[in-house]
Amino acid sequence: TDVLAGNYGIAQMASYSNGSPMCATYGASCDSGTLLDGRGTRGPEENQPNTRDGVDCDGDSGTYHSDESLDRLVVRSLNGDDMIEGTTVEIEATVWAWSTGSSDTLDLYYSNSNDMSNPNWQHIVSKTPSGGGQQIITAQYQLPEGLNHVIRGNFRYSGSRSYCSRGSWDDADDLAFVVRPLALDTDSPTGSPTASPSESRVPSSEPSLHPSLTPSTSPSRQRSALPSTKPSSEPSLTPSISPSKKPSLKPSTEPSLNPSLNPSMKPSSSPSSSPTLPTSRPSVSPSTSPSQSVEPSFEPSDSPSSSPSTMPSLLPSSTPSLAPSLQPSANPTFWPSYLPSLRPSESPTSSKNPTRVPTTSPTKNPTSFPTTAPTRFPTNSPTKSPVQSCALKNEPCVKKDDCCKRKCDKKKKICKK
Predict the structure, then answer these.
(1) pTM strictly above 0.70
(2) Mind listing the pLDDT tens digit for each residue in 31-46?
(3) Is there a contact between 124 and 110 (Cβ–Cβ < 8 Å)?
């Protein structure tokens, strides 16, 4: 049946009725709100499938708000007045696009059939979202004659134009609404406004079509369809239901109490005057340049830097390196290490001073020349065999083997050479 009761220029919120969200009273707009959020079992979508004819066109593949879904439908007049048959209205569809959105398409249809359970769909337009994630797609069409109207959005992945594509990632939803009949419009406005405002202290139940020259002392009971041209001296106590189409000329002086649900896609052109506290998690990608901080970090990084630091660390590492450095350090340590090296050096040291303490084990290759001075401390155990020695020239000998050159003068008992 036709619905004639209504509120002039008032935004209407839909409620679920006869298979889909519906605004049973005409007004400046009809909004599905959150009734269409999600897709089928992904979300899940409330009162699925949300189609007037009861046909389920929703796919069950993918993940909520990662893959495709049609989350909201709004239809509104262009001038803020009631939607009237024969006038042009705007459709605003909020979708969730997969990846970059280039593979997704929104097909918009309308119907003004008196039998809303069997709509006669007429194609309006098909549009591709401009990006991935949450996107808003708008389109306009002229309301045909009749009071009962339905619009359908069919958001699909690939495929061809359809009001019910039935793809695995597709989502089709309806929004039903009524419009104001053309006969309720007056032929012409009054010739001139009243000389003075009414003396009533009670505000009117509906806003006037034309604002008064002076503001009222108290706000109206219902909000106006159009925003004011000038900002109010005091901000509203509650936030608006939907964001404004255009940003404000000046930023707010104070940050919002709660962070936004979705972060901005691009970084700001300039840093904020009051930076936030450091995050508990590291950044996904390393910075292109090192920090300018003079103080070293409290904990070592999980991954080493691509280039070595110019200054040594304040504290030595807890474990030695597995491989020796390619080049010796420019500044050696002042004290020797407490533990010997794992491998002996390939060549002996060039030091001319003997060690203070004898080695615990003899070297594999003895030195070419004997030491010029005996060790300061005796060895722990004597040698297994006496050291073989020979006499020099003019030193006593008994046999030729006693001399180094094996030249013993047996008569004189001295070495010849």
Answers:
(1) no
(2) 999 999 999 999 999 9
(3) yes
